[in-house]
Amino acid sequence: MKTTDPKKEVFFQMEHFSKEQIKTLVDRNYSVHQMAVELRCDEKELELFYISCFKDNRYKFPLHILLTPEWLKEKMKTTSVLAISAYTGASPTAIHRILAGYGMKTTKIKDILTPEVLYALYIEQQLSAAEIADRYKCSVDTVKKLASNYKLSTASRSLNKPDIDQKLFHLLYCELTFTISQIAQMLNCTTNYVKLTLRPKMIEEGGPLSKELSARKNSTPYKTIASTLFEKVEPVVLLELLRGNTITKVAEMYDVIPKTKYELFTKEWLEHLLSQMSLKDISEKFLVSYSYVKTLKDKYNLESVNVEDRLDAELVKKLYIENCWSDKEIAKTLNTSLYSVQKFLSKHNIKPKDRMSLEQRLSAEEFAHLFLEEQLTLSQIATVYNTSTDKVSALRRTYAKVNPKLRSHKPKGVDEQRVKFLRKEVKFRGFK
C-alpha cells in the first residue's frame, strides 16, 4: 500500500489523545502500541504524533517508547537504519545504540535489497538507481554494486511497453487528473517514460482527445476522489479496476465516497442528498468542491433543505446527552456531516457539560454486575462506556465505600466479543 504523502500531514484526532495524555502514559513506560490500545485510537496516527512529540522534546518523549524490539524487528525486515532515522528524526547512532541494547543486529542493505526485490524495482518497475537509493536511504553506488552482483542491467529491463490506449490515458490524465508520477506507478514504468515518450505519443495520435491531452485542465470534479483512491489502493490494482469500472464505482468499493442508488452528479442524486444534508456536507462526503455542488444545484433549479428539517432534535439530544455519542458517531448514523451535527448542537445550545456523567450512566448495581459477576476489568468497563480507565477507577473507589467487595476483587477479564456486545448494548440503550 502506498504511504501517505508527507505534505498531507496527518490530522490528529485530539479527542483521542493529547501531549499531556501521552506524557502520562510515557511516565508509566507504555509503548506506543500499548498507548494506542489504551486510548482506542489508530496506532499509525498515534505513532506519527509521538514522533512529532519526540522531535519537540526528546527528553520528555524518549525514543525507546516507540522503538520497541517488536517495532524494530518488523521495520527492519524492509527498512534500513538510515530510513528509520529519516522517519523518526533520531540519529543513526541513537538507533544503533538502541539495537545494541536489545541485542539486535543491524539489517544490512543487501538483506533488504535482495535479488528478488531489486529485480522488481530495477527491472520490472524500471526505477533508476538514484530513485531506489532515495527510497531505501542508501548510496547510488551501493544500488549499482548490488545490481551488478545480481547481474541486473538496464539492458535486461523488460521491452514490453505499458498496455494503454489514448482513451484510457485521457481518462487517467485529463478526466481524473492523475499526475505523471502517479500514472507511471499505475503502469509500472518510469516517470520519464510517461512524460517524454507516452504522453507525446498519445498527443500525436490526433483525434478529439489530442487537444485535451496537450492542454489539460488542472482540476475536475473527480480530482480529489482520484487522489484519495490512489492513497488507498495499490497503483497497478487501481489501474485494472479503472479499465472496467467508473471512478465513482471504485470509490464506492473502497468506501472513499458513500454508496447511493443514483448516478453521481445527476439531478436525482443531488435532490436525494439535499433532503439529508447541506451543500457543504455533500461536498465533504463526496470529495468534490463546494462551488461545483452549488453549480449543480443552480443548474437543476433545486433548493437546500433547512438543517432543522433534516435532523430530529429529540433523537440528537438523546444520542448526545443520554447515550454520550460523539459528534462523529451521530453524523455517521444519521447520514450527515460532522459540520451539520455541530451546527445543530450549537443552534440548540447543547454542550458537553449537558452530557450525563459516568455515575449517572453507570449505577452502583450495574458496576457491581459488570465487575464482580461479568468479570470485566476496569479497562474493559471503560471501553464499554467509551470513557477513560481513570474515570472508571475513580467510580470504583466511590462505589467501594458502600460495597467493599469492589475494593479487593480482581476480575479475570472477558473476551473481546463480549466487550463489543456490551458496548453495543450501552451505546444503543433506550432504543428498540
Beta-strand percentage? Answer: under 5%
Domain module tally? 5
Percent helix among the residues? 55-70%
Question: How many β-strand stretches?
Answer: 0
Architecture overview:
- The protein is flat and about 85 Å long.
- 60% of the residues lie in helices and 0% in strands.
- The N terminus is likely disordered.
- The chain folds into five domains: 89 residues, no CATH class; 47 residues; 88 residues, no CATH class; 48 residues; 70 residues, no CATH class.
- With 432 residues, the chain is mainly α.
- The two termini are 41 Å apart.
How are the SSEs placed, and which strands pair?
Blueprint: H1 19-27, H2 32-39, H3 43-56, H4 69-75, H5 81-88, H6 92-101, H7 109-112, H8 115-124, H9 129-136, H10 140-149, H11 166-175, H12 180-187, H13 191-204, H14 208-214, H15 223-232, H16 235-244, H17 247-253, H18 267-274, H19 279-285, H20 290-299, H21 307-310, H22 313-322, H23 327-333, H24 338-347, H25 358-361, H26 364-373, H27 378-384, H28 389-400, H29 405-408, H30 416-427
Helix pairs in contact: 2-3, 9-10, 11-14, 12-13, 12-16, 13-14, 19-20, 23-24, 27-28, 27-30
Output the keywords:
single chain, 432 residues, mainly alpha, 0% strand, disordered N terminus
In short:
The chain is mainly alpha-helical and 432 residues long. It has 30 helices and no strands. The chain folds into 5 domains: 19-107, no CATH class; 110-156; 166-253, no CATH class; 307-354; 358-427, no CATH class.
